[in-house]
Fold this sequence. Notes:
This protein is mainly alpha-helical. Helix content is 45%, strand content 9%. A two-stranded parallel sheet has the order 1-2. Helix 1 (4-18) runs parallel beside helix 2. It starts with a helix and ends in an 18-residue tail after the last strand.
Amino acid sequence: MANMKQLNATFDEIEERYNGLDFLFLMLQMTYWRVLEDITPEHWKKAYKTNIIGLHMGSLCAQELMKKHGGGKIITYSSPAVHGYVEYFGCMGK
Length: 94
């Protein structure tokens, strides 16, 4: 989801095979299992690009295909870590 060329190719293939889309289920998660002191700005950039930008761009691509079928649903899941502490799970970008 963080690679726009690959993301577009995926949705192009969905359009070619199914001529539209009815639903999109996403649970994007890019993290680095490290103590926070070992996480670099590059780790944060990759996590953000996957978890936030990938979700946004994937949803926009799906929306265009859903219009062909009269609408659809986008379902997103968050990390189970939102419910409590998970050691070394600091770099989520969400």
